[in-house]
Amino acid sequence: MANYVKISSLGPAPCVIEATVPAEEAVGRMIAHWERMLGFVLPDKPDLIVLPEACDRPSKSSYPTERRMEYYRVRGNRIRDFFAGIAAKHGCNIVYPSHMQAEDGSWRNTAQLIDRQGRVTGTYHKNHLVPNEYNLNGILYGKDAPVFECDFGRVACAICFDLNFDELRLKYVQAKPDLIVFPSMYHGALMQNYWAYSCRAHFVGSIAGLPCSIVSPLGETVAQSTNYYPYVTTTVNLDCAVLHIDENGAHFRAIKQKYGSKVKIHDPGLLGSVLLSSETDEFTVREVISEFKLELLDDYFSRSLTHRCAPGHMEP
Q1: Where are the transmembrane segments (predicted)?
Q2: pTM above 0.85, yes or no
Q3: Which domains does the chain have, with CATH numbers?
Q4: DSSP string, 38-83
């Protein structure tokens, strides 16, 4: 059945706070900054809001490390609790990325998932740090790649430098999340599109000071913020599947003749694959796949590899 999810991604440049501003006042300014930014997307009633990496860290250009640690001490969980209040009030999920201190005093670069009731339901620790995050700031590398169960689907996370490493991407290829969220300071360019297609998942990039984007499982950018407005909201349908045209394509006409606009078959061109989605509450995309005996892209690739290695199929 159609699973429409409205997603907002925000990527303003880091909030500039002067080094002379006391930590208590800096926390108040940061909350006011995000209250203002959220005001641009909350009227659209999003199901999910994604914020950029270390979203509540004052700009490094004006707020030095020694001041930042005092700021973090005063901040504690107050800004997270602010976002939790917003999530509960507006009935939305929020991805809150921040530098977080563990109970043993060590630090992590994290993304916390806050649900519609304002509860933290999952935490991801950045797996692949830039070395100086450890060398200069004592942040430890994360080791797990959890996938979080949300009321609209399964969500995975990558943060900034993570996007350069196949180790993490391949974990998500196996886990098959519906959506990957990417809070970052680095844009990633084609890597965003590659991750989306490789993982057969929608992808949301929230990039501080750079365009935010929402990418389909075909690797197509379907929505993007602009140089004028550092936020974007769009609706995606998570009840979808990626299929290769080979063999499946013979059924597409019959599918459209039977179901019309209740099924969407989107061809991006040049890729040889399409995105099939159910646009109705009457049936799921998996039921259409079963009815017409369609083959998922990954299953087709797997069958092709097996066929290649069958006895007598490969040159001596």
Answers
A1: none
A2: yes
A3: 4-237 (3.60.110.10), 240-308 (no CATH)
A4: HTTTGGG--SEEE--TTTTSPPTTTS-HHHHHHHHHHHTTHHHHHH
